[in-house]
Amino acid sequence: MNVSGGRPKRFGEELQRALADILRRGVGDPRLALLTVTEVDVSPDFANARVRVSHLDPQADLDAAVAALRKAAPHIRHQLTRQVHARRIPRLQFVADRLQEQAFALEAKLRQARPASDDDPQA
């Protein structure tokens, strides 16, 4: 059992809550509206954090939102220093989490593949 692995995980969860709050309040960029932080992986030395984000709107440009987050990373990191009590805040690396997009695409394919029947309320 890796005892030290629990601290980065707990810290990642704390960062995830704080980042969600920061994004909910807005950072002044409309591309960041309706973004959700799906996971934060903190390195064992607490120097870096990979922040996975997805968009609640499947039609939104997730790549543009991630680019905006990368540009706003210093501002967001500064905001984190106000919300998270830690010796140091890790460098933030924002990446797109495409799992939700993939789920929507798979669901659409399944709907197309399923033959419509008269008793199917979804059809």
Question: Can you walk through the features of this model?
Answer:
With 123 residues, this protein is an alpha+beta fold. The protein has helices at residues 6-25, 62-83, 99-113, and strands spanning 35-42, 48-55, 91-96. Helix content is 46%, strand content 18%. It has a three-stranded mixed beta sheet, sandwiched between helices.
Number of helices, where a helix is a run of at least 4 consecutive DSSP H or I residues: 3
- The CATH topology annotation reads as GMP Synthetase, Chain A, domain 3
Distance between the termini: 50 Å
Question: Mean pLDDT, as a whole number?
Answer: 85
CATH H-tier superfamily: K homology (KH) domain
- Beta-strand residue percentage: 15-25%
Sheet with the most strands, sense and barrel status: 3 strands, mixed
User: What pattern of helices and strands is seen along the backbone?
Assistant: HEEHEH
Reading off the top of the CATH hierarchy, the class is best stated as Alpha Beta
Structural class per helix/strand content?
A: alpha+beta
What would you call the shape? globular
- Low-pLDDT stretches: none
